[in-house]
Fold these 3 entries.
Entry 1:
Amino acid sequence: MTHPATHFTHAVTRRPGQSVTGGLRAVDTGAPDLGRMLRDHDDYVAALRETGAEVIVLDPLEAFPDALFVEDTALCLPEGVVLMAPGAPSRLGEVAQMAPTLRALFADLRRIDPPARIEAGDILWTGREVLVGRSARTDAAGVAALRAALADWGHPVREVETPPGVLHFKTDCALIDPETVLATRRLAASGCFAGYRVLFVPEGEEAAANVIRFNDAVIVPAGFPRTEDLIAAAGLRVRAVGNAECARLDGGMSCLSLRLNPRC
């Protein structure tokens, strides 16, 4: 059975540009290899298309080194889109660049404006509720603005905490199905997933928590075999994609796409 939180007809991605080597990062582990990143991005797009989805691949934005991480610009729900207000000042301009693409896909676009700060990497929509993690990129004003934006769409918003040192709430979790979440133990320890079945990422593979359920596949970062086995044991098809270069910029599988069902 399909569900709009896990099954999509479309995705939007953006190719990395030359400027990506200057992207934001919590810890400098060296500049990413653009050639390898482009090959991995091609494979990521292929993995989305393998499920039957239409994938829109946008051109690079050299003025915005982190623009390939399109997820942070918008929250796409069945009723429409809420444009975000990124917490990193250097990323604010990415939203205006994304808006025309989403306006062609949805009739109802709403916007959260600064000084509120919120990035969709901190938002997990499960179908029954919207979990929003407070983080270095999402503040109380951003959560309040999102709650107001979603009020008439009937999506309850629940504020949760992101552990110190974790960039985004979804760095450490992902929706596997409407009742099941993949998560690290450090994130789940707060009790934020009460009422859900939790699959715990194996110890030492915490970096694999950011996966995406996309139609009949779970797209995972390559190099985490125990996490792959865990997901496969749940009866799901696993598709691994290289992420070593994006990981240098704190990026993961969900960061690289907006997943949606257009409603014009």
Note: The CA atoms of residues 15 and 215 lie 22 Å apart.
Entry 2:
Amino acid sequence: MSVKSRLINSAGQPEFGLFPSGVSEINYLDYDLRSPMDRKLSAWSKKFKFNQFQFVALVSPELIVGIAIVDLKLVSNAFVYLYRPADGAFDEFSFVQPLALSTSIGLYPNNSEAVFRKGDNSIAIIADESAMQRRVCVSLSAGVEIDALIDESHCAPLAMCSRAGYQGWVYTQKTAALPCLGRVIWQGETRDLAAMNTLASVDWTAGYMRGETFWNWASLSATLADGRRLGLNLAAGVNETGFTENALWLDDQLIKVDTVDFQFSRYQPESEWRVCSADGIVDLRFTPAGQRKEKLNALLIASNFTQHFGVFQGQIRLENEVIEIQQQWGFAEDHYARW
């Protein structure tokens, strides 16, 4: 299937739905953005109301890495965290830039750069459509270095655009269980990603999001006992107006999943989560091992963000088989946002 060239059509409206091969350009400045009372908004409003973020996870039994760049126009932030399951070692690095200084995220999900810099710290996520790969480059003053090359030729992304509130929309593109190679330098030790059988997941999201929103999210990237790669992306509370971003990948095959219920205790961070889909495909339990947590409550912007990393177990029930999940590393997230 061919890639859709631009998200906003000639009438100034986004195309809603699922895009099996993705969208080349998120041309948001062509959107006919209006107030709830139908007043046309200025180009300045278009730019400053548009939010973007990218998140990349590198997952192996030996090392868990989370990397994000977030551009909210009034402020940008980035974070990198690393967790070693063998001994529970954990480091987190978080940075904020007012007015999104030294921050840029391109509008081509598969062929542009996302860059964040602050002082001697730099984070870049570079997508190369011709090579069908995405490179992650991190250099931190604390001595952390990451150079990862993610192979995106193996499977199509889950790409969709849905309504967000009365006048907004969100485009999101997700992939999981992608092979990757490269290295991570942390705490004076160099780790080879390919040697650890590392798999990557990628989240590219942009749009005019609800002014106040929340979501729960789960992601899994695992190598099964028979050698197949299993990826999972599940969410509730966001991007569910007519379509969902729930899917799994079994090697190169993308399988859609119905709506998902997340059951957990927000105020008991070490307690077990239950994640089940309405169609019965997903029936998983998630046990947190650690978390990255951040609270921000400013005049115009607020965020209560908790991203847990831990292990999944349970079943994936497909038409022709039942896949048993045992102690596979992944993520579960609880997030409130006002922007």
Note: The domain at 4-338 is CATH 2.40.370.10 (AttH-like fold).
Entry 3:
Amino acid sequence: MLPRDRLSAALREARHPALVAFVTAGYPEPDGFLGTLAAMSETADAIEIGVPFTDPMADGVTIQRSSHAALAHGVSLKWIFAQLARRDFGLRAPILLMSYLNPLLAYGFDALAARAVEVGVSGFIVPDLPLEESAPLREALEPGGLALVQLVTPATPAPRLAALCGASQGFVYAVTRTGITGGAAALPAATAEYLAGVKAASTLPVCAGFGVRDAQQVAAIGAHADGVIVGSALIEALERGQNAADFLRGLRP
């Protein structure tokens, strides 16, 4: 099974709704990164690892803070691959890397794809890469069967929504609100209608995120999507010293 197909299958076969957990690589401490991944894998159906970047423009204060701290500890894309290569435990959950484009360009697309396959990465989410400019990365990922996940938002027009859903691989990332990650607790009133439109346009699982903080929200989003993505709230739990598996279990409806 290709990595991107394994990702889709894991989300489809998960207890509904599937839970996709995001953590910034090497945060809060680089030495604990592999332990955090192992704990996340106990409960999460897919794991999204954030590649630290100096200007994470789609992210709110929490992920910005974690990204800058990880960079100060020397965390890089090369470091992440090295950590994944040395893990001595199996991860039940597929792994994705969420990265802005510059670190991927600096690594080199062909080398990136080859190394991702070596260490068991299933795909990439690149929030600042427009669909119209994605062909070079997509072509590099294709031989290894790696996913390039597309993001849609409530402001995406219907024709572009169809194009993005048609181009996405692994799953479609439905941003639940305009703006940045984290944010207010209340979901927008039109969330159900919006997610219904995304599901109608997609043949892949639809996972929704941005601003998800508690089990009530997971249940509300899960009524209209295949999976729910949790990031800032998990990072804040790790900052409090909470075990990742315990926190994620608490989000299950």
Note: The domain at 3-243 is CATH 3.20.20.70 (TIM Barrel).
